[in-house]
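Whiteboard transcription, Tuesday session. T.W. wrote the C-alpha cells on the left side:
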C-alpha cells in the first residue's frame, strides 16, 4: 500500500492559518491525492487554526476514512481534545471535569422472535456471543424477553470459553407469573450472582406458561490472559422457551483506570 506524507510548512508567525497562500497551496496538494490508499498529514511544529469543514473521502473495504494511531494521553487534559490509547477513546469537554471515556459498544438484537429452545442453547441464536480481548475489562448488559410453555423453571448460564479473572452479575426479572401491568401486582426478583473465575448460572422459579417474561443481567468482567467469549444461554427444565423480538445485549470495553479529574 502506498503512503503519501504531506508536511504543511508554517509561515514566520508559526501558524498555518495566517497565510492564505500556504493554505491554497496545501489544498491544491490535497486535491491531487486521488490514487493513494493512505495519506498521512504531519505537522510537528505548526498549529492548524483555519481548517474548517474538511470532508473525508468514502471508506473502502480495506481502508477507513479516518484511523487513529494509539498513543500516550495528554499529561493534562485539554478542552476539545480527542485521544486514543489503544484501550479507550476519550473526549474532553473541560479541564475541570477532565477527560471522559467515549462510549464504544457492540450490540446484538433480535428483529423477530427466535426459535423455541428446550435443552440448553444460545438465547440469541447462533454466532451471537460477545467476544472479549485478553486482559480487558467489560460491562455486558443483557435484556431478554421470552415466553414459556409448561410451567417450570429455566436455567440461565453465561458461559466463558476461557476462565476470567473475575465477574459479577446483577440479575433481575419479572415475577414468576409474568410481566405485570404498572404499577405492578407482584414482587420482581432482584438478585446477584458472583462467578469468580467460571461461568454464571441462575435458576429461575417456576415460570407461568403463556405469558411474557423479562430478565435483565448486568455483568462486569475482568478477562484473563486469553481472549474469550460469553455464550448467553437458557434451558427449559420442561417445555420450551421462545425468545421474543427486541431482546438484545450491548457490551462496552472500559479502561482499567478511573477516568476523569476528581476532587479530594
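and on the right, the sequence the group agreed on:
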Amino acid at each position: 500500500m502506498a503512503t503519501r506524507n504531506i508536511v504543511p510548512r508554517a509561515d514566520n508567525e508559526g501558524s498555518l492559518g495566517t497565510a492564505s497562500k500556504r493554505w491554497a497551496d496545501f489544498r491544491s496538494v490535497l486535491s491531487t491525492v486521488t490514487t493513494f490508499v493512505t495519506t498521512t498529514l504531519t505537522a510537528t511544529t505548526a498549529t492548524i487554526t483555519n481548517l474548517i469543514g474538511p470532508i473525508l473521502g468514502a471508506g473502502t473495504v480495506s481502508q477507513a476514512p479516518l484511523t487513529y494511531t494509539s498513543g500516550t494521553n495528554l499529561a493534562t487534559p485539554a478542552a476539545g481534545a480527542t485521544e486514543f490509547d489503544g484501550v479507550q477513546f476519550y473526549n474532553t469537554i473541560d479541564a475541570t471535569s477532565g477527560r471522559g471515556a467515549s462510549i464504544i459498544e457492540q450490540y446484538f438484537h433480535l428483529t423477530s422472535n427466535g426459535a423455541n429452545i428446550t435443552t440448553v442453547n444460545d438465547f440469541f441464536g447462533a454466532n451471537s456471543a460477545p467476544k472479549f480481548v485478553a486482559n480487558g475489562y467489560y460491562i455486558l448488559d443483557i435484556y431478554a424477553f421470552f415466553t414459556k410453555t409448561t410451567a417450570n423453571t429455566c436455567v440461565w448460564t453465561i458461559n466463558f470459553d476461557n476462565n476470567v479473572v473475575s465477574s459479577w452479575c446483577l440479575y433481575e426479572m419479572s415475577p414468576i407469573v409474568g410481566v405485570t401491568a404498572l404499577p405492578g401486582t407482584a414482587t420482581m426478583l432482584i438478585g446477584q450472582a458472583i462467578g469468580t473465575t467460571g461461568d454464571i448460572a441462575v435458576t429461575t422459579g417456576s415460570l407461568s406458561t403463556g405469558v411474557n417474561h423479562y430478565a435483565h443481567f448486568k455483568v462486569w468482567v475482568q478477562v484473563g490472559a486469553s481472549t474469550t467469549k460469553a455464550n448467553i444461554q437458557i434451558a427449559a427444565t420442561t417445555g420450551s422457551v421462545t425468545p421474543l423480538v427486541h431482546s438484545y445485549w450491548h457490551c462496552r470495553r472500559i479502561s482499567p483506570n478511573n477516568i476523569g479529574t476528581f476532587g479530594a
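Someone added at the bottom: The chain has three domains: 1-67, 68-102, 105-254.
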